[in-house]
Design a protein that fits this description.
This protein is α+β, with helices and mostly antiparallel strands. The chain has 2 domains: 153 residues, N-terminal domain of MutM-like DNA repair proteins; 183 residues, Helicase, Ruva Protein, domain 3, CATH 1.10.8.50. The protein is built from 8 helices and 12 strands. A 5-stranded antiparallel sheet has the order 1-3-4-5-10. Strands 2-8-9-6-7 form a 5-stranded antiparallel sheet. A two-stranded antiparallel ribbon has the order 11-12.
């Protein structure tokens, strides 16, 4: 399932592609009947909140976002959803964002550029097609695709915890909400981090890596954690996800640790990230400390990485490095979030295929 940084990249791509333009909408699959009502409207904006995407449609470009006539298309990609893009050179700076999909145009190579994108016939699985003046985007396989009014959008947002990538949750606002929500619960911190009501946008990779960087055992109850530790974790998460939104890659390792035990245990499909084919990016084998490294030695201490089921998902951790601490670890104090080595990571291709 795409993590929160991917959805923010998707919102940015859709905004660049269609915002302010009158678009044509259709549902080739036939399961999104509301597409006919949106056809010919202006797409005002695209917005991400955690793993949720909102597209604002209105009769004209001069309508305010909070006007009653605005209709919001709410999309949750889930495990299998993705958007694919085609259009004129430079359109949306994207090809596919979401779960792995056959690239649009792989079967129609002659239609790859110029005006030929208008001739692309949507596959029968396309839930929603949006076509603008210079390109189109096809949505396939989402868990949710529905039209909401302002109250419906507000209800979805109200169910979510703070999103580290949203401007209205930056600084004290998001940090305070996150810290208070965790400290109210006796559930393990590994469970709480995957609860979108506690913090929006975290998936399995960010959970495992954030806990390792905090040197924190996944099974410690939230009520036992001090505010200083949780505040540091929030700041580290902001830094990690900001980098992910910029590059499309999750990279959590310090530069000096990447060549140590540079292995992961791949699934049948592998842990793919944006730009994996680019030799200039940090390879996924060097990108993580514990995620999908079960049975392999820890990069820092050599202890075998463990894994276990936690509320239906697999959690990964180092039993020696990660302890039942309540305050910030000395390691995190020596390697604070803000100045850490993310700036040294080679930039990945912007808005390419991303589904980490």
């Amino acid at each position: 399932m795409p993590e929160g940084h991917t959805v923010h990249r998707l919102a940015a791509a859709l905004g660049r592609a269609f915002a302010g333009h009158r678009v044509r909408t259709s549902s080739p699959q036939g399961r999104f009947l509301e597409a006919a009502d949106l056809d010919g409207m202006v797409l005002l904006a695209a917005e991400a909140a955690g793993k949720h995407l909102f597209l604002a449609f209105a009769p004209s470009a001069d309508v305010e976002l909070d006007a009653p006539v605005v209709r919001w298309v709410h999309v949750h990609l889930g495990l299998y959803g993705s958007w694919t893009f085609a259009g004129e050179p430079g359109f949306a700076d994207a090809h596919a964002i979401g779960a792995p999909r056959v690239r649009m145009g792989e079967r129609e190579d002659a239609l790859a550029g110029g005006e030929n994108w208008r001739q692309l016939v949507p596959r029968e699985t396309v839930r929603l097609r949006i076509m603008g003046p210079t390109g189109l985007a096809d949505l396939t396989g989402p868990t949710a695709c529905e039209v909401l009014d302002a109250a419906g959008r507000a209800a979805v947002l109200a169910r979510l915890g703070p999103d580290p990538l949203r401007a209205d949750h930056a600084g004290d606002a998001g940090r305070t909400r996150f810290t208070a929500a965790v400290r109210r619960s006796r559930s393990p911190i590994g469970t709480l981090l995957m609860n979108q009501k506690i913090v929006a946008g975290i998936g399995n990779i960010y959970r495992a890596e954030l806990l390792f960087r905090a040197r924190l055992d996944p099974f410690v109850p939230g009520t036992e954690l001090g505010p200083g530790l949780l505040q540091d974790m929030w700041e580290d998460l902001v830094a990690l996800m900001t980098y992910g939104a910029r590059t499309g890659r999750i990279v959590t390792t310090q530069v000096e640790h990447r060549e140590i035990e540079a292995r992961i245990i791949e699934r049948s499909r592998g842990t793919r990230q944006n730009g994996d084919e680019d030799p200039g990016v940090v390879p996924r084998e060097q990108s993580f400390y514990v995620y999908h490294r079960q049975t392999l030695p820890c990069r820092l201490c050599g202890t075998i990485i463990r894994s276990a089921d936690m509320t239906g998902r697999t959690v990964f951790w180092c039993p020696r490095c990660q302890t039942r601490r309540t305050r910030p670890a000395r390691w995190t104090r020596e390697h604070p979030a803000a100045p850490w080595a993310l700036a040294e990571v080679p930039a990945a291709t912007q808005y390419g295929d991303a589904h980490a």
